[in-house]
């Protein structure tokens, strides 16, 4: 059984609409997915920006835990007390 941990999630500026402009969100969860879903519960609309389908991020989203990229779209990676989850959105142009 996984234990829920208090973590911080760094939200990129383009995704801060649902968070009312807040860039660092304290939340809790036993996994990256649980932490991100908790933010969506507290800030409706956040999940649509991050998730393509339940438990999977959009292809242009990268997720890091303490500076290390989460492999692929495996959001069921465990997190520990005090971890920092960062969401990075690829920017395209032309």
Rg, Å, rounded = 12 Å
CATH 2nd-level architecture: Roll
Low-confidence stretches: none
CATH topology: Ubiquitin-like (UB roll)
The residue fraction in helices comes out at 10-25%
The largest sheet, given as strand count, sense and whether it forms a barrel, is:
5 strands, mixed
Strand order in space, largest sheet: 2-1-7-5-6
Mean pLDDT: 90
Helix and strand content put the structural class at: alpha+beta
Envelope shape? globular
Number of domains: 1
Distance between the termini: 47 Å
Helix segment count? 2
Instruction: Tell me the series of helices and strands, N- to C-terminal.
Output: EEHHEEEEE
Account of the 3D structure:
With 94 residues, this protein is of the alpha+beta class. It has one domain (5-89): Beta-grasp domain (Ubiquitin-like (UB roll), Roll). The chain has two helices and seven strands, in the order ββααβββββ. It has helices spanning 32-42, 46-50, and strands at 5-10, 24-29, 51-53, 56-57, 61-65, 68-69, 84-89. A five-stranded mixed sheet has the order 2-1-7-5-6. The protein has a two-stranded antiparallel sheet with strand order 3-4. The relative contact order is 0.25. The model has no long low-confidence stretch (mean pLDDT 90).
């Amino acid at each position: 059984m996984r234990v829920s941990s208090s973590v911080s999630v760094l939200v990129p500026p383009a995704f801060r609409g649902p968070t009312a402009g807040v860039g660092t969100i304290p939340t809790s969860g036993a996994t990256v997915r649980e932490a991100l879903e908790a933010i969506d519960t507290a800030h409706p609309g956040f999940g649509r920006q991050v998730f393509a389908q339940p438990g999977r991020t959009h292809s242009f989203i990268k997720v890091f835990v303490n500076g290390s990229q989460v492999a692929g779209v495996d959001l069921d990676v465990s997190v520990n007390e005090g971890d920092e989850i960062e969401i990075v959105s690829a920017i395209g142009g032309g």
